[in-house]
Amino acid sequence: MPNQPASPLDPRWAAAPAGAPIQFVAAFPHARPAFAAAALVLAPSLLGEYWINAVLVPFLVLSLAGIGLNLLTGYAGQTSLGSGGFMAVGAFATYGFLLRTELSFPLALLAGGIVAALVGLVFGLPSAKIKGFYLMVTSLAAQFFLEWLFLKVPWFSNSGSSGTISAPHLNVFGWDAGTPAGKYYLVLACVAALTWTATQLVRSQTGRDWLAIRDMDTAAAVIGIRVTAQKILAFAVSSFYLGVAGALWAFAYLGSAGVQSFGLSRSFQIIFIITIGGLSSISGCFFGAAFISLLPLLLDFVSQTLFAGTLDAGLLQNAQKFIFGVLIIAFLIKEPEGIARLVARLRTRLSAWPLRF
Amino acid sequence: MNLFLETLIGGLLAGTMYSLVAIGFVLIYKASGVFNFAQGSMLLFSALLFVSLHEAGVAWWLAVLATVAALGLLAVVVERLVLRPLTNRSPMTLFMATLGLSYAIEGFAQGAMGSGVHALDLGISDVPIFVGDLMVSQFDLTAAAVALVLVGVLALLFNRTRIGVSLRAVADDTRAALSVGIDLHRIWQIVWTVAGLTGLVAGLLWGARQGVQFSLSLVVLKALPVLIIGGFTSIGGAIAGGLIVGAAENLAETYIGPAVGGGITSWFAYLLALGFLFIRPAGLFGERAIERV
After folding, report:
1. What pLDDT shows up at residue A85?
2. Cα separation values, A106 from A186, A244, B44, B166, B282, Å
3. If both were cysteines, with which of A44, A68, B28, B143 could A181 make a disulfide (CB 3.0 to 4.6 Å apart)?
4. What is the pTM of this model?
């Protein structure tokens, strides 16, 4: 980019002193994503099955769901507590397509995402008139109504007991993705493609319109942005992402899922992901999802080693809940822009190391 | 016709309990602009503390006093550790903080006092009585009376005391209130304590109904549509909203519920609130924000 002046905050700033640990990365700006991609592709041959299926897959799916909500909340500025409901739509719609048509899994997934987008569009309609907390509470209408719908109408779960759906044969154009590594690569491919799309989307005219609406929708309307249409579009796109994430959560991670897998606590979890990771940041969703999926493991590990067997499970669970709540508050106070900002700061620090500035 | 009236009255009386929870919200929202999601866990915490003390053999009045003291302490801690560092942050950030707070309070309350179900007997018998030939729950009547008294006391507090006047000043214009020397931090502490007290009353009434247990904190989800209908900033709105939601929910469950398989109370109130919003985007009594570019 010869025409753009280098910003002093840019880690690729040419004046990084010799010996700075980040200098190698600074010299090859595309090296970092390439490393991450290589690590993720090679993961199944390096890590055990437990890490792949119980840690990496949910982490990737939650990141995807985080991106979905972040597009809506972080970029378009519309708060929603209905993420779990839209994930459920994606899961149940994909299941329906797999069951009732001969579609291959990727096509069923796409169709499920589109159904979720349409449902999101309908529940996004109130955003034309309602703002802020009022809108947030009405998004709960989506959450509770959808939960109730999938539980009460047996058609959606093909009369499965208490609305449970089980993964059918995961067939990707003839290739069997039912193995642990197969599921992992399936998830990885979906997440990679949708993440790339999201990064392009937020840099497009649409993304910029969303940012303008987030900052002040009245002003955005004044400069000629079609506020209502863009808000509803944001709901639809966000629900598409959430729907795909929901289907992957049900079929690639859980195997069989019920409505309770997509309850209100799931919505809260995704909100936590984008708040901790960083609003209006795509990479932040990955940091937030990593934090959310690793923290319980870490707390488990610490309590196992410190008080092995002396604490009962209920107390431990409540202690985790307490620590989690306190960490959320601490994060909001100390770093309101989330882990994404922390990482960016660390990088600028490292690029100037050992100097302070 | 009798069935209709009984359903309506039962719903209205149950609605007063929703109002009680909603009032706690409104108090905090008015004074500090915080959408306090932790109201439900404060309710759980206070009811659980009272029951635990009572079960340990503490006299009930002493248990109430201790619970009130604990709520005051909680308010001070929350103000110091959460609200003060987050001053001037976006309302969304503050909401997220209260979400974290609700996790922390629930984890603490259940970790310290157990997650079992505690029975709570307030000495109000739950036998139906007949008014004319209508059957009305005596318990609901008492609860409604308690709610009325509480609202009366709050009205006196707001309109007749120095604290109440400064509280209204803060709600009206925080900067102007600060400039005439009102101690904002103190006001926040008082408001959170008072909101905790309404939570205690609501928690005891709900707890006597369904046992003191975790699901008590979910009452907060019942209060949200009430807030939407009444508006976030009006205590009168919270009462009217509670009555509307209670009555509509009960009527819908009786007349529409059987046709669609029941269990519609979880979302019916939200749909109702959505309908109201299309007509009044800031609730029945809420203040409509004027935006300037």
Report:
1. 95
2. 9, 10, 45, 61, 43
3. A44
4. 0.87
